[in-house]
Write a structure and sequence with these properties.
The complex is a heterodimer of chains A (101) and B (177). Chain A is an all-alpha fold. Chain A is 77% helix and 0% strand. The longest helix of chain A is centred in the last third of the chain and has 31 residues. With 177 residues, chain B is mostly helical. Chain B folds into 2 domains: 83 residues, Up-down Bundle (Four Helix Bundle (Hemerythrin (Met), subunit A)); 50 residues, no CATH class. Classes of the chains: A mainly alpha (101), B mainly alpha (177). The interface between A and B is large, with 75 and 87 residues.
């Protein structure tokens, strides 16, 4: 037997959980962004795996759009981080609490 | 164990270990390098799935562009690179519980609720499509019946986001005083 769809689903679930752990646990905003990229990658992985398993190319088309949105997100996000660092001299997410009620 | 399974386990092991390193490494720069390794593993999985063009796009966009952008951001915020008392935030305990619970939920849904008999006997992928994958993708992106509107909207979104990023990061006049 070969590597079936279940293996890819399992890998994607593990990778997504690792990314979620990083987003929820780490203190540096840049690490949070990197872990969001990991989660997007796990979703892309699942798209490609199902596209292969169903013999349908539309999953791969969707992955390109996810990559475009990820690139836009990381560009805007890193610009925000640099701006916040310039004013607060820190990117510790515990200290970024201006919007706290 | 067949060769394909061995390659899958090796590549996915690389991906997962690199992902864990991203979460645990203290040094931001080392974490960024581990993230590039994880992206490389995902590109390997794409190759295993017969999506060679996507693997190339993954290498160019994620490893070539997004990772470099993140490394530039790390260098611009250099003070955070120094070793600190703890790399975790003040709500790490609650975050750990949330992540573990969501993983358990994910495993429950996948193993108990998600099961479509269509995947038990996957359809034979037409080799004609798989051999012409780039041609098919290219014509999908520009044919009016398929994805040309989302394609244009995505390019506009990327342009707007990049202009917005430049505007957000532009030094304010009062900062220089």
């Amino acid at each position: 037997m070969t590597a079936t769809i279940d293996w890819y689903v399992a890998l994607s679930a593990i990778l997504f959980t690792i990314g979620a752990l990083g987003v929820l646990l780490r203190r540096s905003a840049i690490i949070v962004f990197m872990c969001i990229e990991l989660m997007l990658n796990s979703a892309n992985l699942l798209f490609v795996a199902f596209a292969r398993s169903l013999g349908d190319l539309h999953g791969q088309v969707l992955v390109f759009f996810v990559i475009v949105v990820a690139a836009a997100e990381v560009a805007v996000g890193l610009a925000l981080i640099v701006t916040i660092f310039r004013t607060k001299r820190s990117i510790n997410i515990d200290e970024i609490n201006l919007l706290k009620g | 164990m067949t060769g394909e399974q061995f390659v899958f386990l090796a590549v996915s092991g690389l991906t997962i270990v690199a992902g864990i390193l991203v979460v645990t490494l203290r040094n931001l720069f080392h974490a960024a390098l581990a993230m590039m390794l994880s992206f490389l593993g995902v590109a390997g999985i794409y190759i295993m799935l017969g999506a060679g063009f996507l693997a190339a796009a993954q290498l160019l966009i994620y490893i070539g562009a997004i990772s470099i952008l993140i490394i530039f951001a790390i260098m611009l915020t250099r003070r955070m690179m120094q070793a600190q008392d703890t790399p975790f935030n003040s709500q790490a305990g609650a975050g750990l519980v949330t992540a573990v619970l969501s993983f358990i939920l994910l495993v429950f849904v996948i193993t108990r609720l998600w099961r479509n008999e269509i995947f038990d006997s996957p359809p034979e992928v037409p080799t004609a499509i798989m051999n012409q994958i780039v041609v098919q993708l290219g014509s999908d992106f520009v044919s009016p019946g398929a994805y040309v509107i989302p394609f244009i909207v995505a390019s506009m979104l990327l342009l707007a986001a990049l202009i917005g990023a430049v505007y957000v990061a532009w030094p304010q006049v009062e900062d220089e005083a």
